[in-house]
């Protein structure tokens, strides 16, 4: 196995000519440290154990399932999770877990406990969806997985989007990530849909940063949006703009990140880590850039040969995967990086225990086709057909991840 050192790729950080605004309310948006962090982690573990006791009731089953839950978390993150953030009274350690304390967090834990203790019914399995709310996008991104659906007539009205939310909330969905196309081209519809969804599901928006102005960020927050994930694929503006085929999206994205933080939302960067990005030694400089922006999470997405990348030689080689795995473990657990954002790298657990997509979540693309995830075009049914049916019931179909298999 090839060894990897972070210092080998720690090129000098080429600072982008950006102005970082530091007007974020630290009392409502901060990394939790010291004694508070220890107390919060202990409280979360006790809460999980309490939910296990009242849900499973049998002592042996409680202990066995509780340990299985902790083991799944360890395998997902490599080692114990260290970093946690307090945003407007709730604590976040993962983009795909509702903030704690909340009813949504408790429901997620209950579902996971039952999933490990006994088979769930078909209507209890989904806890999370990606919902593409538009086919419109001003970008022409190199890696776009929605490429074949873009810039055609919209599939859903605002009313139909709310109906889709209702259908999946009846299935127990606790978190919804709204994407597109570029979701903020329909910002007014999106705000209304979030207002409709917020009481039963945590809402996030996945955006290029287009139209993520200070005003719109504040409106999204007021509507009930909990988090924003902004795609920035390079810390060098020209390279990001070239990747997105848009002349000035880098600065719009940076301004959007700052607006999200100021509005008081969980804020993350998402980056497509191509071979050229890794070979160029850009991981650590990008991480420095993310720290400078003050985001909570950085999500590393591997390029997949779907959409605009279909039939192209984009899949990472083993040496690239090894670099990402080492980076993921070191920056999340080494004290040197304690003040940096949490890094999420799905490839780490996918290659060891399978993928959460399909078994716990689905992706509804902008044409209404329902897939295991944005990167696995499995299309098991179309939600537009469900909307037109009398009962509006989701077909009982398993969306298996064809690349990694599903986590039980």
TrEMBL record:
SUPFAM superfamilies: Radical SAM enzymes
Cofactor: [4Fe-4S] cluster
UniProt xrefs under InterPro entries: Aldolase_TIM, Radical_SAM_PqqE_MftC-like, rSAM, rSAM_sf
GO molecular function, one term: metal ion binding
Domain of life: Bacteria
Keywords assigned by UniProt, alphabetized: Iron, Iron-sulfur, Metal-binding, S-adenosyl-L-methionine
Start and end residues of each Radical SAM core domain: 123-334
Matching PANTHER family: PQQA PEPTIDE CYCLASE, RADICAL SAM DOMAIN PROTEIN
Protein name per the record: Radical SAM protein
């Amino acid at each position: 196995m090839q060894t990897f050192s972070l210092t080998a790729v720690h090129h000098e950080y080429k600072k982008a000519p950006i102005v970082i605004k530091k007007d974020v309310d630290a009392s409502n948006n901060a990394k939790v440290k010291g004694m508070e962090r220890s107390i919060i982690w202990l409280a979360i573990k006790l809460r999980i154990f309490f939910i296990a006791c009242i849900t499973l009731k049998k002592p042996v089953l409680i202990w066995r399932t509780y340990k299985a839950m902790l083991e799944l978390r360890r395998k997902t993150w490599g080692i114990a999770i260290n970093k946690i953030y307090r945003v407007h009274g709730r604590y976040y350690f993962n983009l795909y877990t509702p903030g704690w304390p909340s009813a949504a967090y408790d429901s997620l834990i209950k579902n996971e406990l039952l999933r490990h203790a006994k088979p769930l019914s078909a209507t209890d399995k989904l806890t999370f969806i990606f919902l593409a709310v538009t086919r419109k996008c001003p970008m022409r991104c190199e890696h776009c997985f929605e490429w074949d659906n873009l810039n055609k007539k919209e599939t859903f009205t605002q009313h139909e989007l709310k109906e889709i939310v209702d259908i999946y909330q009846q299935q127990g969905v606790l978190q919804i990530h709204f994407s597109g196309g570029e979701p903020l081209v329909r910002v007014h519809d999106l705000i209304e849909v979030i207002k409709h969804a917020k009481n039963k599901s945590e809402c996030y928006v996945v955006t290029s940063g287009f139209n993520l102005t200070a005003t719109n960020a504040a409106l999204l927050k007021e509507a009930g949006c909990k988090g924003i994930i902004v795609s920035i694929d390079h810390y060098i503006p020209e390279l990001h703009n070239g990747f997105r085929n848009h002349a000035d999206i880098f600065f719009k994205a940076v301004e959007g990140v700052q607006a999200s933080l100021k509005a008081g939302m969980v804020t993350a960067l998402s980056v497509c880590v191509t071979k050229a990005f890794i070979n160029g030694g850009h991981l650590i400089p990008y991480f420095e850039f993310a720290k400078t922006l003050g985001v909570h999470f950085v999500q590393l997405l591997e390029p997949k040969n779907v959409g605009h990348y279909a039939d192209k030689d984009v899949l990472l080689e083993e040496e690239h995967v090894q670099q990402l795995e080492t980076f993921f473990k070191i920056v999340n657990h080494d004290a040197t990086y304690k003040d940096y954002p949490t890094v999420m790298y799905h490839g780490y657990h996918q290659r060891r225990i399978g993928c959460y997509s399909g078994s716990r979540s689905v992706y509804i693309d902008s044409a209404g086709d329902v897939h295991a995830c944005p990167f696995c075009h499995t299309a098991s049914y179309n939600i537009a057909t469900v909307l037109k049916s009398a009962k509006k019931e989701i077909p009982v179909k398993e969306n298996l991840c064809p690349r990694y298999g599903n986590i039980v």
